[in-house]
Amino acid sequence: MGLYSDSKYLIKEEIETVHKDHFLDFAVAGTWGNSEQRIAIASFAREVGISAGLLEETPNTFAHESNFKLSKVAKLVVEKLAISPKDILKDFFDEVINTGLSEEEYVEIVGIVSRIVDMDIFARGINHPLIAFPEPGVSPPSKVRPETAKLELAWVSTIPNFPEGGLPAKQLFGEKPPKPYIVRGLSLVPDEVTKHMELEKAQYQPLGNIMNFDLRHHKGLSRAQVEVVAGKVSALNECFY
Amino acid sequence: MEVNLKGLVDSSQDIGVPGGDELLEFSEALIGNDSKRLNNARFDLEKQLGPDAIPAASAIAANFSKNDRIANGCGIPVDDIMLKATKDIREELNLDSFRSAANTFRHL
């Protein structure tokens, strides 16, 4: 049974499959956080979204009871990302890093919150209850930093394009064409790039088709209509990128 | 088809695509905090463009909500090639006034 099979709308199988995989993935350790921490981050993003009126509480909205408590600084980052992304400025980033959150942990939190907000907004859009979190697993995080990651032009370290980025770049981005920052932004945690691109491919369009204006990835909308929605959302979020 | 991009930031302008008003209203309501407004916007969009428009528009709005958080959260700059290509649009829509524009302009 698919995640959204009880929806009144016909949902693309690709979206349903990717979302299901991503929810199941919360039961697995990430690169810098274990499963319990990752679910706590996603669940808190929901909690603040509901408090702000951006989501509706439904049965099984929150993670199962846990003894794990998010740190104050992690909560601050999650809250800002979840409900007011336009207010995230360099000073804020510097402050949370100086407060003790590592650059790697910060990037993984950005990836997790961005993905849960994505999937929750999709559910809200089709008027479907929020998807329940799985029980947390017990494996430890790998804590492997990509060896070629370095400070380029983003606030956080990123893997440069190939060849400068070496093997990690080749594995993550391919040899060419060079990838833009929206692909590389999370590359300090390569697994988050992979997941970000899975959602991108299912929900927007396969990478590399941005100039293919004849591509119709969604049955319900033309490319022009797709860009109207994309542009409006990004304008409201005051995203210059 | 000529898309009037000013319609993205000025609701008095016709965006120029079929169902444009309904798509703009649905997008704003979906990331806003008024569930009644969202229900009305969903009803109007479905009536105008059909039921397939709802999951499609939801998927796009959700995806860009993700991308906006990644971009603003990581402080990434707009890549050079895109910065040059979007100069006119940025001026027309006053996008340079967004605070996240600093992530790009601090490098110029």
Q: Given the structure, what is the number of helices of chain A?
A: 9
Radius of gyration over C-alpha positions of chain A, nearest whole angstrom: 18 Å
Major protein interface: A-B, 75 and 68 residues
Count of helical stretches of chain B:
6
What are the secondary-structure elements of chain B, in order, as H or E?
HHHHHH
Flag low-confidence runs of chain B.
none
* Proportion in β-strands of chain B: under 5%
Element-level helix/strand string of chain A: HHHHHHHHH
User: What is the terminal-to-terminal distance of chain B?
Assistant: 35 Å
Q: Report on the biggest sheet of chain A.
A: none
Walk me through the topology.
The complex is a heterodimer of chains A (241) and B (108).
Chain A: H1 13-25, H2 35-51, H3 72-83, H4 90-98, H5 103-125, H6 166-173, H7 181-184, H8 190-203, H9 223-236
Helix pairs in contact in A: 1-8, 2-3, 2-5, 3-5, 5-8
Chain B: H1 20-30, H2 35-49, H3 53-74, H4 80-85, H5 87-93, H6 102-105
Compact description:
Chain A is mainly alpha-helical and 241 residues long.
Question: What report would you give on this structure?
Answer:
The complex is a heterodimer of chains A (241) and B (108). In chain A, helix 1 (13-25) runs antiparallel to helix 8 (190-203) and helix 2 (35-51) packs across helix 3. Chain A is an all-alpha fold. The model of chain A has no long low-confidence stretch (mean pLDDT 94). The N and C termini of chain A lie far apart (37 Å). In chain A, 47% of the residues lie in helices and 0% in strands. Among the domains of chain A are: 13-138; 209-241. By secondary structure, chain B is mostly helical. Chain B folds into 2 domains: 1-74, no CATH class; 77-108, no CATH class. Chain B is built from 6 helices and no strands. The longest helix of chain B has 22 residues, at 53-74. Chain B is globular. The model of chain B has no long low-confidence stretch (mean pLDDT 94). Classes of the chains: A mainly alpha (241), B mainly alpha (108). Chains A and B meet through helix 5, helix 7, helix 8 and helix 9 of A and helix 1, helix 2, helix 3 and helix 6 of B.
